[in-house]
């Protein structure tokens, strides 16, 4: 799954890594080292029918406006079912987004309790996680991050991981005119698992409100 991540790269660095023409937000990106669900997070998506992809803020929790008030508000969607699930399929077809992250956290059970690990690219370049979004009942966008079976080093910590896309997949993933499920599967690829590494970090990260400093991703 993906239930916590860090984002501290600046907008210019993210734009450079995306290699897409994006307008720069007026405000600087505030580094966050313990991003939790149920908060506003940075994303990239087409925010209008005649606009290109742009940075914006999405609520991390997916509940379309048409869903009942008591409907679930998942933070993740499985790649195996996102295209066929009634709850997700419309967003998968036309409302895909990217969630930039510098790394994410997973927990490994130990005799002393759960030990958090931080997973990131070996070269420390930003990751771009595949997401879907839908308009919430209040008109704001809410999103879920796609997950897939864990691969490579990530499999040592958890059985699932966020779907991080390779560079060639970023533009087609955002393309609202690309709606055919099979075509999407053919042109969108995940980042090679060889690029991912992990290390144990402080258990202070276990509490979402426990600070936001870079110390949270230092090796424990």
Automatic annotation (TrEMBL):
<comment type="similarity">
    <text>Belongs to the SOS response-associated peptidase family.</text>
</comment>
<protein>
    <recommendedName>
        <fullName>Abasic site processing protein</fullName>
        <ecNumber>3.4.-.-</ecNumber>
    </recommendedName>
</protein>
<keyword id="KW-0238">DNA-binding</keyword>
<keyword id="KW-0378">Hydrolase</keyword>
<keyword id="KW-0190">Covalent protein-DNA linkage</keyword>
<dbReference type="InterPro" id="IPR003738">
    <property type="entry name" value="SRAP"/>
</dbReference>
<keyword id="KW-0227">DNA damage</keyword>
<dbReference type="Pfam" id="PF02586">
    <property type="entry name" value="SRAP"/>
</dbReference>
<keyword id="KW-0645">Protease</keyword>
<dbReference type="InterPro" id="IPR036590">
    <property type="entry name" value="SRAP-like"/>
</dbReference>
<keyword id="KW-0456">Lyase</keyword>
């Amino acid at each position: 799954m993906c239930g916590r991540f860090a984002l501290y790269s600046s907008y210019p660095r993210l734009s450079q890594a995306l290699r897409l023409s994006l307008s720069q937000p007026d405000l600087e990106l505030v580094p966050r080292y313990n991003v939790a669900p149920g908060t506003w997070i940075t994303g990239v998506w087409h925010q209008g029918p005649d606009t290109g992809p742009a940075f914006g803020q999405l609520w991390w929790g997916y509940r379309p406006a048409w869903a009942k008030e008591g409907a679930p508000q998942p933070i993740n969607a499985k790649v195996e079912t996102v295209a066929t699930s009634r709850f997700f399929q419309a967003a998968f077809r036309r409302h895909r987004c990217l969630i930039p992250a510098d790394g994410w956290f997973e927990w490994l059970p130990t005799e002393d309790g759960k030990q958090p690990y931080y997973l990131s690219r070996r070269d420390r370049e930003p990751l771009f996680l595949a997401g879907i979004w839908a308009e919430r009942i209040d008109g704001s966008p809410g999103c879920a991050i796609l997950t897939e079976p864990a691969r490579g080093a990530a499999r040592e910590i958890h059985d699932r991981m966020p779907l991080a896309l390779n560079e060639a997949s970023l533009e087609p993933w955002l393309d609202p005119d690309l709606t055919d499920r099979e075509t999407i599967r053919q042109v969108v690829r995940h980042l090679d698992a060889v690029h991912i590494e992990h290390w144990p970090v402080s258990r202070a990260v276990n509490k979402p409100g426990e600070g936001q400093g870079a110390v949270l991703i230092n090796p424990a």
